[in-house]
Hints:
Oligomer: single chain
Strand order of the largest sheet: 3-4-5-6-7-8-9-10
Helix content: 40-55%
Order of helices and strands: EEEHHEHEHEHEHEHEHHHEHHHH
CATH superfamily: NADP-dependent oxidoreductase domain
CATH architecture: Alpha-Beta Barrel
Strand content: 5-15%
Amino acid sequence: MEYRNLGASGLRVPVLSFGAGTFGGSGPLFGAWGTTDATEARRLVDICLEAGVNLFDTADVYSAGASEEVLGQAIRGRRDAVLISTKTALPTGDGPGDWGTSRSRLVKSVEDALRRLGTDYIDLLQLHAFDASTPVEETLSTLDRLVTAGKLRYIGASNFGGWELMKSLAVSERHAYPRYVAHQVYYSLAGRDYEWELMPLAANQNVGALAWSPLAWGRLTGKIRRGQALPEKSRLHDTAAYGPPVDDEKLFDIVGALDGIATETGKTVPQIAINWLVSRPTVSSVIIGARNEEQLRQNLGAVGWSLTKEQTDKLDRASSVTAPYPYFPYRRQEGFAKLNPPLV
């Protein structure tokens, strides 16, 4: 397993990490992802650690905290062998204090997460979304106190816009608060919006990307193709509205390119899609998920080998889309690109 520094930090993380959204799954969204109990979760953690995957990602909203609880049970007795990443900010109830990143909400959220996880510190806490109702200074000063108290090791963001992340980094620099070293983002062959603004920002500010949904909400599994109905057990039947939008025709072009490379390499479609993502600029780790041991072992096979330049170019062409303004001139006009060349 390859390890990379997480942004501008000394924390080294594996290029593949495990998303625990299937742990304790319940409700229409997370129940469709999976319903892994503590015994099954411990086995999946065993397999991850054997492969060198020691970073496990969860959130307080995953099955109303059950994901954190099951993860805590699965790592019991080996806390020092793992890195825990969790997230907070999204609503966990209907009360006025049940959402956001105010001082009172953050302190309570961290204490609740520590209790559910059965630990006294969190390696990486990420804000699940930007809270426009709370001053950035209040949020970061609270995170500073939690880091100083030893309850958090590092902090990160998730699903932030470019200006939201940059403003936060600037406030951290101005007040000498801890800075976000990670940005958990949606990024896949079927969703490359991250490349327009967030990737250049991450490269400039040294913020490591943790890529979620690398298989585009299950669309890059190789089971969805042009002219075929959705598989009967696809979670897309019930959860498509929760996930990122994907143009069907573009998706079929991408899957066609993946099929061709699968024939050339002997690798599976998901393995190729994840391998492409691991090689992208600013990506520190790709978050993989699995309902069972078979899926996990297949996804772990996405690393330890490389696509050729020709294969990468083929995937880039199949998945490329026109960048929105003001980014498209830098990709289409030599003069613009000379001033600010795209990273990919």
